[in-house]
Design a protein that fits this description.
This protein is of the alpha/beta class. It contains 24 helices and 15 strands. The relative contact order is 0.06.
Length: 657
């Protein structure tokens, strides 16, 4: 047995009178503190278990009997109305019915859906349409009562979640309650005290002339309007309508961002029911008169002329000009950057040139661009993400059609300088878009992991390990492909939003019948890609009649589908068709003849089709044709020379047989 090198402790000296008692009380007090701390930790551990395990999730809430009974009652009323909707001549009735159905589907599988209240004076028309859905006051009163029952159920779950300190659930359910209760006309608020977060959307923007020179643009006093909202200060030289529209969109974007990224802005001091906001100053926004003024102010920034908006983190300022329908998505994109910089609870140290994880910064902003809104009574139905998200269409095409993929290690470690130097930066951005959708359209845990990862990027400490098992190139690529292919097939019902008209369904398992069940409004589309899918002639030929069923398409890709000559007459009826891809389809000269004299067709792909020299005269008759692709067809060299001789502009962009 080895001897210890540590000396024995000295023998304690005798205690003086009273020292034992003091030592005894000290030991007891220390043990009590230790016991209290142990109980305290046990209480919060137990609270966490109850919060995560037994607090009712949205799915459980939506399946509760009072909630479901009220929803079934409303759905029965809507079904009865739908049978007679064609008899109602009032405008917007069918649209209102469709919006109500969306509002009642709170938790769709493939996207995030929210309900937002809106300014009272802006919702009168939509509220009047709700009234017109119902035949009498009694039916309208029953509808209000059903909505009230659903709202009460939600409020009960709010109280339960907050009692268990599940602040994120409580916060999101409070928004849902506010949005749902705003739908019905003349509905009375159920909570006595208005919730400040929701009332921010009901506060009309206030405008006045700028009294002094604008500190960041140099605009002289009196030359601009200063618009204030609860969270924003907007200096504008644009027209009043555009400025007010941007001001409203700013508040709506912030309301959605706070719900999607609750843990980014809410620290341990943010608790219900008030959920106090910890950031002190308002967000600064500038709206220029036109593109020229915007470009002049930001001329030092490379390629600024290609954009309609820009966030400057150094000045803590978002800058835009109004360009119609292009502007809203840009506003949401740049505001997303601004919110992460200025509203995050944790310190931000992101270097947009040298910081790793630049893809995440842009990917999350591109995801938020998908924010789509439809009026519904006194509120809005808002979708974020989903397989039909506008930016995701290009991402699906790049991956499933072009097979574009940057290996994960190279992709996530790229900084801003590297990305901006990419030869095909659009393709790089498409991958960032798609991966952000993969995480944020996923489970609650996947969304949380992505939020933590974005936190690490903005802290300039990018940590891909936070993303879990998908921090692996093969696993991520496989999951991404499954997500892109399965999305449309697993959720074939496509809601209508005016900013979601493109649809790239390459390699999806959707059938012609499922596509024909889409809302009629979505048959007018700039881009429909059905390549390598299951569609056939049923999509264009109804009951044997070659009549296009209300499709109005500009770019149509049917490569490697089951479409045949039978569909061409119907497709040719699409007067705005500019690009048509029929590669590897059962198309012959008979089908091509339907395209004779087509007024708008510019690009035609007939690779691997059974066409011959008999189609040359048809191609020559198409006045706008700029490129034609005839690889692996039966067109002869003589026929090809004739085509190029009589239409020489085809030489630059076409493919020979």
């Amino acid at each position: 047995m080895l001897k210890s090198s540590t000396p024995h402790p000295p023998t304690p000296s005798p205690l003086k009178r009273g020292e034992g008692e003091k030592s005894h009380w000290f030991v007891c007090a220390r043990r009590c503190c230790w016991l209290f701390a142990l109980v305290f930790k046990f209480y919060f551990a137990l609270s966490f278990v109850f919060t995560t395990a037994s607090a009712q999730s949205p799915q459980e809430l939506f399946s509760s009997e009072p909630f479901q009974s009220a929803r079934r009652s409303i759905e029965a009323k809507l079904a009865a109305i739908e049978e007679n909707v064609s008899k109602k001549s009032e405008p917007g009735i069918a649209d209102t019915l469709s919006a109500l159905r969306l509002a009642l589907e709170f938790n769709p599988k493939d996207r995030q859906r929210f309900l937002l209240p809106r300014q009272s004076d802006a919702s009168k028309i939509s509220l009047d349409r709700i009234k017109k859905l119902f035949d009498d006051k009694e039916a309208l009163a029953e509808f209000r009562k059903d909505l009230e029952t659903m709202t009460v159920s939600i409020d009960e779950r709010v109280d339960l979640a907050e009692s268990r300190r599940d602040w994120e659930t409580g916060y999101r359910l409070r928004w849902l309650s506010a949005g749902l209760s705003s739908i019905a006309p003349d509905a009375k608020p159920l909570r006595k005290t208005p919730w400040s977060h929701a009332t921010a959307l009901d506060t009309a923007p206030e405008g006045r002339k700028g009294f002094s020179n604008h500190p960041k643009t140099g605009w002289p006093a009196g030359s601009y309007t200063l618009i204030t909202t609860p969270h924003f200060e907007i200096a504008s030289q644009s027209d009043n309508k555009a400025a007010l529209e941007v001001a409203t969109l700013c508040e709506q974007s912030f309301a959605i961002w706070k719900q999607v990224f609750f843990h980014v802005w809410a620290d341990e001091n943010v608790t219900g029911p008030a959920y106090p906001e910890t950031f002190e100053r308002k967000f600064s926004v500038v709206l220029f008169r036109n593109q020229e003024a915007y470009k002049s102010k930001l001329r030092s920034i490379p390629d600024i002329g290609l954009s309609t908006g820009y966030y400057d983190p150094n000045q803590r300022l978002s800058l835009f000009y109004w360009d119609g329908n292009k502007t809203p998505s840009t506003v949401v994109h740049e505001l997303t950057h601004q919110f992460f910089y200025e509203a995050s609870a944790k310190p931000v140290a992101l270097d947009t040139n040298r910081g790793l994880g630049f893809w995440g910064v842009e990917g999350v902003a591109l995801y938020m661009e998908s924010m789509s809104m439809r009026a519904c009574g006194g509120g809005f139905v808002v979708d974020v993400g989903g397989w039909d998200s506008p930016r995701l269409q290009a991402a699906r095409y790049r991956r499933l059609h072009d097979k574009y993929w940057v290996p994960w290690e190279e992709f996530h470690s790229a900084d801003g300088i590297r990305v901006r130097g990419e030869d095909d930066i659009r393709a790089w951005y498409s991958q960032a878009t798609g991966l952000a959708h993969l995480w944020l359209d996923g489970t609650d845990q996947q969304r949380r992991s992505f939020s933590l990862y974005i936190d690490s990027v903005y802290a300039n400490k990018e940590n891909p390990d936070l993303l879990g098992e998908w921090n692996d190139d093969k696993k991520l690529r496989d999951a991404y492909d499954r997500y892109l292919i399965a999305g449309p097939s697993e959720s074939p019902v496509r809601p209508f939003f005016s900013n979601r008209r493109d649809a790239v369904l390459c390699r999806s398992r959707l059938t012609s019948q499922q596509l024909l069940e889409w809302p009629v409004e979505l048959r007018t589309t700039p881009w429909l890609d059905l390549s390598f899918s299951q569609v056939d002639d049923e999509l264009f030929v109804v009951a044997g009649a070659k009549i296009l069923p209300n499709w109005n398409i500009q770019r149509l890709n049917l490569e490697s589908t089951k479409v045949t000559d039978n569909s061409l007459e119907s497709i040719a009826e699409s007067k705005n068709l500019s690009e048509l891809d029929l590669s590897n389809c059962a198309i012959t000269d008979l089908g091509v003849s339907a395209l004779r004299d087509h007024k708008s067709l510019k690009t035609l792909w007939l690779n691997q089709c059974g066409v011959t020299d008999a189609s040359i005269d048809v191609l020559l008759s198409i006045p706008q044709l700029e490129s034609v692709h005839l690889s692996k067809t039966q067109v002869t060299a003589q026929g090809w020379r004739k085509l190029l001789a009589l239409k020489p502009r085809l030489k630059a962009k076409s493919t020979a047989p």
